[in-house]
C-alpha cells in the first residue's frame, strides 16, 4: 500500500535536493514521476524546482488553492513529489491523500513545519494530520552542532518576531535549535509571539 | 540536550503501556519522573494513568488549560511523561517546550494525532509544531494488517461522522488504515466531513 | 507487503513489554499471533515470555538452532513475535525472513544488538542483514540521561571485559551510553577487548 | 553529545548525494567537515566523492585498513562524513567510534548494508554494532514500487550468486525488494547461497 509522506525539515535542510534525488532514482528505473510545486513559490522562476546546491528540474504542474486534480491523469504515475508543500492549501493535501489511497500511488511531500513564529504553515498542518509517514530531513543549528528545529527570520542580522507569514525573497532565515531560538528571540520576544511561559523564568 | 517528544499513535496502540514502561525504566535507575495527564480524562478515575493491559500508575499532577507550571518544582526531575497529551491546551505545550529547554529535561508526550474526522486535537497540533522528535507508536488496522493511521468513531457497529470532538466513555473507536477509513466512512461521508476530493471519484 | 522487523534495544529497554503490548493489540482485534523464544533463554521458566514489569504470556514455541519451521503451520497466522531474538541461530533468521516473504506475514523480532564486549549476537547480526525495518527501543544510560547504546557486564559493581558471551542469571548488566561505556571499561579495558584506538588518547 | 551514524541504503539510493548535501549545509554555516572514503573505491578517480546525479567533491583523506587517525588533527572538525563506509575495516570503525565520543564530534557514515549474497560488508557489520543511530536511505525496487532491501548482482541481465564480494566497475547491480530478490535468484539460488529454508517451499 503506497503512502503519503511528509518529509519536513528546517530551512536549508536540503529538502529540494532530496526530492530531486528521489526523482532521479525513479526515472533511472524507468518509472514515471510527477513533480508539483505551489504557484506561490517562484523564487527560482515559475515552473523550476531548484536546489541551492545547483541541481534543478522542471515542475510538471503548479498548484494553487483551487486546483482540482483529475484522478485519471495520474493512473500511470509511479510517484508524486511535492516541493515546498507547506504552502499548499489544506484542500490540496486532502486530494493528495485521496489520490494516494485510491491509486495506490506514493505521494512524497517536502516542506517546512513551521514559520518564524513557530506556527505551522497550512499545508504542513494538514500533512501532519493525514500523512502515513512523518519523516525528518535534518540540518544543524546555524549557531551550534545540535539539530535545527525552528526557523529564525533575520533582518539586518537580528531575529524579528513580527511580519507576514510568507515574505518570499526578502527576509533571511536561519535554521536553529530550540536553545538558540530562545537565545535570539529572547524571552520578551517569545511573549510577544504569544508563547505561554511557565512561572519562574528570568528575563534576559 | 534533552528533547520534547511527541509519540503519537492511533486508538489502542498501547501508548499508555509504553509510557508506563518508560516510567518503570527511569525509576529502576533511581531517577525521578513526573507523570502528567489532562484533568479532562478521568476514564480510569481521577489521577490514575491506566493501560488497557492492566498496568497502571498514579498521575503526579492533573493539568488543566490554565495550569501554570513552576519551573523550580521541576529542577530535580529527570523526565516528564504526559499521557493523553492530545487533550492539553496549546498553552500547556508551550510551557512544556520551554521547561524542556530551560531545564535540559526530556518531556515525552503520548497521544492521538487526530479525531474521528481527521482533525488534529489542540495539544497534538501544537506538539507537531514544537516537538524535537515526532515518533509513532504503531498498531494495525482493525480490519486488515496495514498500519492504522485514522480513528473511526463507531455507533452500533457503524462509522459516524458527526458529533463532538471528545465523547469520553460513550462512543467506541477503531484504529483503521486509510483504505478502511474511506471504506467505512464512504465517499459521501468524507464529503460531509469537508474533505476535498479530486475529480473522477466514483461514489460508493 | 509484510515486513521482517528488528527492534533492538539495550538491556532493560522494555523490549519484552513492547512485544507483549503488540501481542495484546493483535489479539484484541481477533487476530492470531505466534510467540517464539529461543530454547536457551529459560530465566523465567521454560515457555514463558515475561517482562520485568510483571506482564507475561506463554511462548507458543521454543526455537533451537536446528528448528525447521513448517510453512503450512503459519498460513493462518497474522503475526510472529520473537523475544530474545539475539540468541537465535542465523539459520532461524533465514527461515523467518523467507516465511515473512512467502506468507506475506509480519515477523517482529525483539533483542539486544551486542554483548558486553560490543560484539553482535549471532541472531542480531543476521537480523541486521535481512530485516526490512531496523527500529530502536530506547532506554537511558544507567549513569546519565543520554540514550544507552552499550551493555556493561557488572561483577561486584565493577565492569568486566572477560567471560563467555552468554551468562544467564549470573552476571548483572547495565545499559550505558558510549561515554559511560568508555568511562567504566577504561581505555586499558577497551584495548583488552581488541578495540582499535586512534593515536593520541590519554590513558585513564 | 555527538553521535556515530550509519545511514545505510541499497544500491542507487543516492547515499553519496545525501552526503554531499550534508557537507554543503555544514560548509554553508561556516563549519568544518572532513570527507573520508576507503582507498579501495576509485570508481570516480582517486580522491573524488561523486554522486551519480553529477554533484561531486574532493575527499580529504583516503582510508586503508591500517590507517591510524591522529586525534589532534580532528579537534577543530565539526563533522566527519564517510562515503562507501561498508568497505572500511572494522578497526577503522572502532577509531571513528572513539573519535566521535572523545571529541564530541558527529561522524556520519553512508554505505551498503549487504552484498549480493545478503552478507554484510565488514564496515557495515561493525557500524551496526557501534552506531548510536541507524538510519535508512530509501530507494524503490528496480522491479516494483516497494522499498529495496537487497542488491542483485546482474551479469548479462541475469542475477548471479557466485563471485567475489567486491567487483568494482565490472558487474552491474540492481536494488530489489525481498520478493524480487527471491524471484530473480530463485529458490535453488538461495540454497546455493547457503540460505536456510523453512519446510514446505515449492521450488520454481
How would you describe this protein?
The structure is a homotetramer of 204-residue chains. With 204 residues, the first copy, chain A, is an alpha/beta fold. Chain A has a domain of 133 residues: 3-Layer(aba) Sandwich (Rossmann fold), CATH 3.40.50.300. Helix content of chain A is 25%, strand content 23%. Chain A is built from 4 helices and 11 strands; from the N terminus they run βαβββββαβαββββα. In chain A, the strands form 3 sheets. Chain A has a 6-stranded parallel β-sheet, with helices on both faces. Chain A has a 3-stranded antiparallel β-sheet with strand order 10-9-11. In chain A, strand 9 and strand 10 form a beta hairpin. In chain A, helix 2 packs parallel to helix 3. The longest helix of chain A has 15 residues. The model of chain A has no long low-confidence stretch (mean pLDDT 93). At the B-C interface, helix 1 of B face helix 1 of C.
Concise account of the structure shown:
Chain A is built from 4 helices and 11 strands; from the N terminus they run βαβββββαβαββββα. By secondary structure, chain A is α/β, with parallel strands linked by helices.
List the topology elements.
The structure is a homotetramer of 204-residue chains.
Chain A: E1 4-8, H1 15-28, E2 33-38, E3 48-50, E4 56-58, E5 61-63, E6 79-82, H2 90-103, E7 107-111, H3 122-130, E8 133-136, E9 150-155, E10 158-160, E11 172-176, H4 178-192
Parallel strand pairs in A: 1-7, 1-8, 2-5, 2-6, 6-7
Antiparallel strand pairs in A: 3-4, 9-10, 9-11
What is the 3D shape of chain A? elongated
CATH fold group of the domain at 4-136 in chain A: Rossmann fold
Most extensive chain interface and residues per partner: A-B, 45 and 45 residues
Considering the protein shown, what is the CATH homologous superfamily of the domain at 4-136 in chain A?
P-loop containing nucleotide triphosphate hydrolases
- As laid out across the biggest beta sheet of chain A, the strand order is 5-2-6-7-1-8
Amino acid at each position: 500500500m503506497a503512502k503519503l509522506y511528509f518529509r519536513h525539515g528546517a530551512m536549508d535542510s536540503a529538502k529540494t535536493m532530496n526530492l530531486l534525488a528521489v526523482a532521479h532514482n525513479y526515472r533511472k528505473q524507468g518509472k514515471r514521476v510527477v513533480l508539483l510545486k505551489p504557484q506561490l513559490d517562484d523564487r527560482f522562476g515559475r515552473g523550476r524546482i531548484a536546489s541551492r546546491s545547483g541541481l534543478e528540474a522542471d515542475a510538471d504542474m503548479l498548484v494553487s488553492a483551487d486546483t482540482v486534480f483529475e484522478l485519471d491523469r495520474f493512473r500511470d504515475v509511479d510517484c508524486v513529489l511535492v516541493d515546498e508543500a507547506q504552502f499548499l492549501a489544506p484542500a490540496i493535501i486532502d486530494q493528495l491523500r485521496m489520490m494516494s489511497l485510491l491509486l495506490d500511488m506514493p505521494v512524497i511531500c517536502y516542506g517546512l513545519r513551521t514559520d518564524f513564529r513557530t506556527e505551522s504553515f497550512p499545508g504542513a498542518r494538514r500533512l501532519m494530520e493525514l500523512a502515513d509517514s512523518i519523516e525528518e530531513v535534518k540540518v544543524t543549528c546555524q549557531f551550534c552542532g545540535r539539530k535545527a528545529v525552528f526557523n529564525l527570520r533575520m533582518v539586518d542580522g537580528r531575529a524579528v518576531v513580527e511580519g507576514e507569514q510568507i515574505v518570499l525573497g526578502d527576509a533571511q532565515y536561519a535554521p536553529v535549535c530550540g536553545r538558540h531560538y530562545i537565545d535570539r528571540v529572547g524571552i520578551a520576544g517569545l511573549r510577544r509571539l504569544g508563547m505561554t511561559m511557565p512561572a519562574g523564568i528570568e528575563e534576559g
